[in-house]
User: Fold this.
Amino acid sequence: IACVVLDEVGLAEDSPNLPLKVLHSLLEDSEVSEFTKKRPNVSFIGLSNWALDPAKMNRGIMVQLEDPTPEELVKTAHAIIDHPSDSENEIHSSKLTPYLKSLADGYLVMCSKETFYGREDYFGLRDFYCLIKMLYSLCRDYNTTLNKRILLHGVKRNFGGIPDIDVEEIFGDVMSGLDDTGIGPLSDPLSLFRANVNCYVNSVSTPSDSSVVNKDSHFDTTRYLLLLTENVSLDILFQSRILDERTKIMFGSSFPLDKESYNICHNINRIKIYMETGETVVLTNLSNLYDSLYEVLNQFYVNLLGKNWVTIGIGSQRVECPVDPKFRLIVIADRATVFQQFPPPLINRLEKHTLDISTILPNDPVVQGVVGKLSDWLNNFCTIEHNGDTFKYNENVCFVGFQQDTLSSVVYSTKSKLRYDSINGENEDVILEQCKLDLLKLASPDAILRLSKSKFDSEFEIVSKTYFGLKLFSLADYLQQLSRNAVTVENYSIPKLSFVTTHS
Assistant:
C-alpha cells in the first residue's frame, strides 16, 4: 500500500487555482478508477496548521493535536538528543538531560505570553526542537555541561526577533542553576548573525584568557536566517563584515512584470546555481519565491553520491537540486510585513533576529553622547526663528530619507569609515564633525537657505559654503564622488548602498 504525505497541505488550500480539488475523487472510498477498474490502493496523510475546507475534511479522518504538555516536550527532547549510532552519545546527552524539564517549562512560558504584535503563532515547536538540537551540539563541541553562555546563545538564536522580550527572565529558572564562568559562544547581535551566516561559532573566549577559538557547528543545527527590520539594513551587514563582496543579493518589487512566472522561474534558477556553488544569498521583497523553497528551508536533504539533494518546486514541476554545505540563505523583510503577511510555516522554519542600528551600536555612554550631541545639532538645524516666533520643521523635510535610526546609523557608519575600533574622548570630536558633514549630504537645498533664519545664523556662511562645495547637483556628480571616495578595509572594498528618490 502506498502512502502519500502532504506536508503543509494548508498552503495549497490558499491557492486561487484550488489544486487540492484533484484529491476529491481519490479520497472517495467508492470511487473506482476508469483505467484499472479498481479502487486506488493509496492512502493520504495531510499535515496542516489549520483546518481545510469541509469538502476534504468530510472525506477523511481529522486528528487534531493539542498543545504538548511539559512531559511530552521532555520526551520529544530526549528522542532528539538520543543518537544510538554515536558511541559517545550517552556522555554528551547526559550534559543536557538534567535541564530538559526546565527548558520545556521556559518554552511554554514563552508561548503563554500575550500575542507578539498581533500574532499567536510567531514561535512554534520547531523553535523548541531547534533549541534542543543546538544546545546538544554546543555542549558536545565544547565538551562541557550546559552553562549560561551556551544557554543564552541558544535561546537568543531560536527565540529572537522580538526586541522587548527578555529571554533571560523567561528562562531564568534554568539559568539560575548554571555556571556563569564556563566557555561558550558570544551572544551579542553581531556574533549571533555571524554564527548563523558562517555556520560555525567563531568568537569563543575561555575563562582563563581571551584567545579566540574557531569550532565547527553541525550543518543541521543551524536554520536559515530571517532578519526583521523597518528598512533594508544591508549596509549594516556589509560594514560589520558579516556579508562581503561575494554575497549574492536578490531584490524583488511589486511591479506587475516582476510577478510573472517567467521572472519567478528566472530567480529560482539563480538560487539553484547559488545552492550548488555554496554562495550566501540575500532575498529582499521576494515573497513570491518562498512557496517554492519550503523543502530547502526544511533542510531535509537526501544524500546521494556524497552530495546533499533537495527538491524545489517551480509551478507544477519539481526539480532536484544539489546543495553545498556552505550555502546560506538570508531573508530580509519589513517587520510589519512579517507579522501581517508571512504564514506560520515560513516563520517557524527560519531563525529570527531583529536588525536595526540600535541592536548593533554599543550601549556605551560615549557613543550615546555622540548621538545626543548630533541630535541637538539637528534640532538647531531644523528650528527657524522669525519675528520672535519659533517654528520647527520635521527632520525628514530638511534631510532626505531621514528616519528614526538615521543618527545612530551615521555614527556607526562614520566609526567604521574612519577605522576606529571604538569611540572615546580622543576621537569623539573628529567623528562628530564627520557625522555632520555626512548629514549635510542628505540636506535639501531649501533647508540650507533657511539656516539664515535659524539658530545657525552665525554659521550660515560656513555651512552653506561647505554644502554647495560638495557639488552634488546631479546623480552623475554623486556617482562620480562615490567612485573617488570608495572605502577599502584590508583590501576589501565596502559596498555603498544608496537610495535614489525621483519624481518619475
In short: Residues 200-219 have pLDDT under 50 and may be disordered. The two ends are 62 Å apart (CA to CA).
